[in-house]
Amino acid sequence: MANKDEWRLSVRPLPNEEHGDEMSDSESKNEKAEEMKQAEKKKNAEEKPIAPPGGMGNFNRVLAFGDGLDKLMMAICFFSAIGAGIAMPLMFLVFGKLVGSFTGFFTPNTNALHPPLTREGFQRQVNKSTMYMVYLGIARFALSYISMFSIRISGLRISARLRLAYLRALFKQPVTVIDETSPGTIAARLTTNSNSIEAGISQQFSLAVQAIAFTLGLYIVAFIKSPILTLVASGTIPIVLITYMFALPFINKNYYTAEAIKDQASSLAFEVFESVRIVVAFGARGRLGKTHEEILKRAMVYDHNNGPLYGLLLAPMFLAVYGTFALAFWFGIRQYTRGHITGVGTIIVVLFSVLWAVMCIGRLYSPILAITKAAASATEIFAVLDAEVPDVSGLKDLEVPVTSDIVFKDVTFAYPSRPETTILNKLCVRFEAGKTTAIVGPSGSGKSTVVGLLERWYYPAGTAAAQATSTTDNIDESQEIWVKGEKASFTHATTTESIDPTSGIFVGDVNLNQIDEKWWRINVGLVQQEPFLFNDTIFNNVANGLAGTHWENETKENKLEMVKAACKEAYADEFISRLPLGYETMAGKSGMKISGGQRQRIAIARAIIKQPALLILDEATSAIDVRTEKIVQKALDRVSHGRTTITIAHRLSTIRKADKIIVVRGGQLVEEGTHEELLQNYEGVYSGFVRAQAVEMGEENFEDISIEGQDAVDIDIATKEGSVASKPDEEFVDRPFLSSFGLLLYEQRARWLLYTLTMIGAIGGGSTYPVQAYLFAKAVEVFTFAKADLIHRGNFWALMFAIQAVAVGIAYLVLGWASSLVSSTVSTYYRQEYFNNTLQKRIAYFDRETNSPGTITSRLSTDSAQLQQLLGTEMGMAIVAILSIIGSIIITFIFGWKLSLVGVLAIMPIVIIAGYYRVHLEQSFEKMNAVVFATSSQFGAEAISGFRTVTSLTMEDTITTRFDDLLTAHVKKAIAHAKYSTVVFAFSDSADFLCQALVFWYGSKLMLNGEYDLVHFFVIYMAVIQSSLGAGMWFSFAPNIVEATAAANRIISIRPTNKEKSQVQTLKSVPHGSEAAGVEFRDVHFSYEEREVSVLSGVNLKILPGQFAAFVGASGSGKSTMISLLERFYDPTSGQIIVGGDNICQVDPESYRKNLSLVAQESSLYEGTIKENVSLSVVQSLATDEAVEAACKSAQIHEFITSLPDGYATMIGSRGVALSGGQRQRLSLARALLRRPQLLLLDEATSNLDSESEKLVQQAIERAAGGEGGPTIISVAHRLATIQNADVIFVMGSGRVLESGSHAQLLGKRGVYYQMCQAQALDR
């Protein structure tokens, strides 16, 4: 995995294993099929192409999501932004007139070109012009406020509407599309992508309009004053435009490619955090961290490619700015001396108009880049919105005989991702109305596929399926089925015309494809193998079953009665009523706050609450203990009476009473009949299944001993944690910017060369402002000289401006390049550190509601992005601003302290205070956004991860409504904040007008008194104004500073504390042993940190080295908790756990876990090859080909792997989707055995498998246990047939051991275990 060049999101389908465990019997392949495999292998070996970035059409489409109010707000913003932009050109007219007044006042009488002004005339003109500046400042303030506030409203509303449309569109996609999309990717699109879009259509849009109006207004003013001088001064602009046209497409391409690769890192991170227990158990943090790091390094290459391009963007712009000074003064003096222009005022107006127009191109950079990013970010979202949506409308209500038989007629089906592999091959089955039909068969035989077809997730015999089956009709069943010729495309929805009217799925005489999809699902109740519950109350989870029905809008009181009735039928009310908050108890993310059996009963209640005509139970009792299974089975028997019920089961004891049992194999019907009828055929498939699951009961007489009402057996105490609010992260400390962000920069001091180059560039950029002030003052002064001196001195200072232009261009080239490299390098480093440190957290950290996989993945993505934004050119420009402030203040006091004091003490504080409050308001605004976006991201990712549950319950509208409510609340809060924060924005935007008016007014007073000459005044004026603009530039990065500070605090807070480090260092290291370890629990008590009730209450037991021990008991009895304690996911509240003679709480967890292996109920596999997944449990040096193959042989999966074209190099897809359940579980076992553990822990390792798969896995486990020197094995099981050969069995209940002994000994006691065996016995 770590050495792959890409992190593929789609995988090549796998052929299937010969054994009954797999999808179809296969051994040999025809020649043409083999050629196709090789071609496809070659295709998949190539780099997955990345979609091209989106054009501006995407941006227009985003704006189209606005309604009438949004369009009105955008129109208001548009015109007010134009007004705010035009204010500056008008101010330059006033400024030019003032400069003319100043030079006129200081011109000697001997200068015929410029006659002097009187004192009264000078004062009158200055007063008049300064008032114009004040009026323009007030107008700009009002217009800026209106434009920014109106666009903030529309931006938030459009962004929320787009997020909602994206989630809604996802629910309209085929299941195959959702299966290939990681919830982490979806979370990133709902946060990072959507945030980029929001920035591009709100503040940045307003700034872009304002900048465009500003530029056009400047040129209009300049051309009015002097067209030819304007054209000459604009000579540098083509340089800027050509550079931008060259660089921007490459920047956009590199940015989009890097983001696409980072999405792959997010997908991996989500998978890792979702299965963090397995990652920790196998010490795989380092291996997966390395894979994550390699992905980030690939992205960093593209970020680094943008370094010189960012430098090219900055350098020509500033080269052009100071080149404009040189050209304007040089040519302006020529025009002035020849009488073509009236005075220096014309030159000043044209100069500053063109100068600011050139600088405005730079001001357009950020808005254009933000808009471009918004368009690029929208590409992935619009790809979903533009995806073809099938027409799922059709017949409903009285047009459909919903209570009739359901008939499969010659149904053939192949999954869209594996069109060459036929799952159902002309299956003919009748599900009789009002009766219970059970489907049994090995993994891959098509049982769950029947559920997918009935739920309309897939469609049988579509155009692609027909194409696939047409080539396989004459192929022998023992061969693997492949499509000949070109791979067929699969359309999610097939029209009724494309379906053979004699084949398909029929409800009565109506083809299922002709029935309205949503109406059909309302009439179908589904309980899946892995019940998915939302992070909501139990009441709401059960009430979700009413979505789409006529009860959906009932009052809460009526719904509560229905919920309670359904829960009583499902025997869920008994544990819910004992919870402190009852039906208002939170289920936790994915229902993790309650046990598996309890989740299953809630799911059953949810399925039956709407009284469906068809009830489908897909492994509905697979994760339920014996007692729960018995009572739930009684409930299911009752609710299925008189209702068409289809049951898929691996545990055959649950379907003995079915009216008909259908046995499928290889996608075809092989047997059908009742339990008794099928048992008569001793050689039959079903009889073999029964024998595989038989529990040896000895010679006792079977008595029906009721287990209800017995307190000793009523051990289903649930997890009475109540609805405890998740704790905030105690580790998080809110540090100020310098101590948090500064610490990260200090830690990266090894990058001193890049830092040095950045500082050199920043010093060069910052020093230009005070130098420019001096040069400008000297250039203005020449207009008071006689003609000869004016030309000579004017040309000299124009040359000085040209030299400055070259120096500044070089400085900004270095600054842009170096700062970009710093940002990508440092942000990549800390994103990886963030990932590694998060994985170092204890499991309790991941149990908190605020730390769901989606939320953590989102933080990982957004925090590093915020660091990168600030560390890039933004950081360089901020340093330039600070240096320009310092340099400008110094030069002002050198040339005159009075005006400097007014400028620095009166003007600077206004700008700085405005900036401070801007930071403060933005900080609170960003904090609120962070919480809401994290919540919406978590909600969206959770909803999509339960996609099948959502669609089966027709909850699409319910989910999107909740998501809409969440976003609407966010918009309201954000708008309320924007009312006040926008005032500061507007004031910051207009304060310089008022400042300039004050400087000119007070400066004129000092000049009239003879205290200042022209040079002194203009040096101070330019320096003060530039320092003010520099301060404004610094505070304009306030949002980025706030975001980066919060991100830096999270990165620092997630680090292990000194206390944690010292604890690990003082703990004893455990050597890797080769002999089995003994286990002893000594009065162990335990309760979860967020739960009130003790899960374990004084557990005492002893397991000898090499023994095969088993824990059995009801849901919530503490079985899996004991496995978690042995793995040191948690530590006991009190008591001791002794493994191999050591108290496990006093040894180093990492070294201790090297002697353990875990096989969990869910086989957590990762995208990559088979070998990479198996070898994940050991260090690279131990994962030799021989060792991996030996482990796979022990797990009885080696033969299947070698039958694949790529063998151990076969890619298995995200979460191992290309493998069947039995194959995934045996790979998990192989991964566990590769460690050669002293202690092997099996937590429901076979509960999700069919009989044949279970038998193979069980044989592998017993083979591992049977050898001399084998590990001690502890197994948690509900199926007693899997542990009846255990050396010792511990029966758990009420958090303690109720009984212990061997299978025979416990039967002799005729206690709880005996009753459990009776419930599962199949041969009575």
From TrEMBL:
<dbReference type="InterPro" id="IPR036640">
    <property type="entry name" value="ABC1_TM_sf"/>
</dbReference>
<feature type="transmembrane region" description="Helical">
    <location>
        <begin position="752"/>
        <end position="776"/>
    </location>
</feature>
<feature type="domain" description="ABC transmembrane type-1">
    <location>
        <begin position="757"/>
        <end position="1043"/>
    </location>
</feature>
<dbReference type="InterPro" id="IPR039421">
    <property type="entry name" value="Type_1_exporter"/>
</dbReference>
<feature type="transmembrane region" description="Helical">
    <location>
        <begin position="796"/>
        <end position="815"/>
    </location>
</feature>
<feature type="domain" description="ABC transporter">
    <location>
        <begin position="406"/>
        <end position="691"/>
    </location>
</feature>
<dbReference type="InterPro" id="IPR003439">
    <property type="entry name" value="ABC_transporter-like_ATP-bd"/>
</dbReference>
<feature type="transmembrane region" description="Helical">
    <location>
        <begin position="1014"/>
        <end position="1035"/>
    </location>
</feature>
<feature type="region of interest" description="Disordered">
    <location>
        <begin position="1"/>
        <end position="53"/>
    </location>
</feature>
<feature type="domain" description="ABC transmembrane type-1">
    <location>
        <begin position="75"/>
        <end position="364"/>
    </location>
</feature>
<feature type="transmembrane region" description="Helical">
    <location>
        <begin position="875"/>
        <end position="895"/>
    </location>
</feature>
<dbReference type="InterPro" id="IPR003593">
    <property type="entry name" value="AAA+_ATPase"/>
</dbReference>
<dbReference type="InterPro" id="IPR017871">
    <property type="entry name" value="ABC_transporter-like_CS"/>
</dbReference>
<feature type="transmembrane region" description="Helical">
    <location>
        <begin position="132"/>
        <end position="153"/>
    </location>
</feature>
<dbReference type="GO" id="GO:0005524">
    <property type="term" value="F:ATP binding"/>
</dbReference>
<feature type="transmembrane region" description="Helical">
    <location>
        <begin position="982"/>
        <end position="1002"/>
    </location>
</feature>
<dbReference type="GO" id="GO:0015421">
    <property type="term" value="F:ABC-type oligopeptide transporter activity"/>
</dbReference>
<keyword id="KW-0813">Transport</keyword>
<feature type="transmembrane region" description="Helical">
    <location>
        <begin position="228"/>
        <end position="251"/>
    </location>
</feature>
<feature type="transmembrane region" description="Helical">
    <location>
        <begin position="72"/>
        <end position="95"/>
    </location>
</feature>
<keyword id="KW-0677">Repeat</keyword>
<feature type="domain" description="ABC transporter">
    <location>
        <begin position="1079"/>
        <end position="1319"/>
    </location>
</feature>
<dbReference type="GO" id="GO:0016887">
    <property type="term" value="F:ATP hydrolysis activity"/>
</dbReference>
<feature type="transmembrane region" description="Helical">
    <location>
        <begin position="339"/>
        <end position="361"/>
    </location>
</feature>
<keyword id="KW-0812">Transmembrane</keyword>
<feature type="transmembrane region" description="Helical">
    <location>
        <begin position="901"/>
        <end position="919"/>
    </location>
</feature>
<dbReference type="Pfam" id="PF00664">
    <property type="entry name" value="ABC_membrane"/>
</dbReference>
<comment type="similarity">
    <text>Belongs to the ABC transporter superfamily. ABCB family. Multidrug resistance exporter (TC 3.A.1.201) subfamily.</text>
</comment>
<keyword id="KW-1133">Transmembrane helix</keyword>
<feature type="transmembrane region" description="Helical">
    <location>
        <begin position="205"/>
        <end position="222"/>
    </location>
</feature>
<protein>
    <submittedName>
        <fullName>Leptomycin B resistance protein pmd1</fullName>
    </submittedName>
</protein>
<keyword id="KW-0067">ATP-binding</keyword>
<dbReference type="Pfam" id="PF00005">
    <property type="entry name" value="ABC_tran"/>
</dbReference>
<dbReference type="GO" id="GO:0005743">
    <property type="term" value="C:mitochondrial inner membrane"/>
</dbReference>
<dbReference type="InterPro" id="IPR011527">
    <property type="entry name" value="ABC1_TM_dom"/>
</dbReference>
<dbReference type="InterPro" id="IPR027417">
    <property type="entry name" value="P-loop_NTPase"/>
</dbReference>
<dbReference type="GO" id="GO:0090374">
    <property type="term" value="P:oligopeptide export from mitochondrion"/>
</dbReference>
<feature type="transmembrane region" description="Helical">
    <location>
        <begin position="309"/>
        <end position="333"/>
    </location>
</feature>
<feature type="compositionally biased region" description="Basic and acidic residues">
    <location>
        <begin position="1"/>
        <end position="49"/>
    </location>
</feature>
<keyword id="KW-0547">Nucleotide-binding</keyword>
<keyword id="KW-0472">Membrane</keyword>
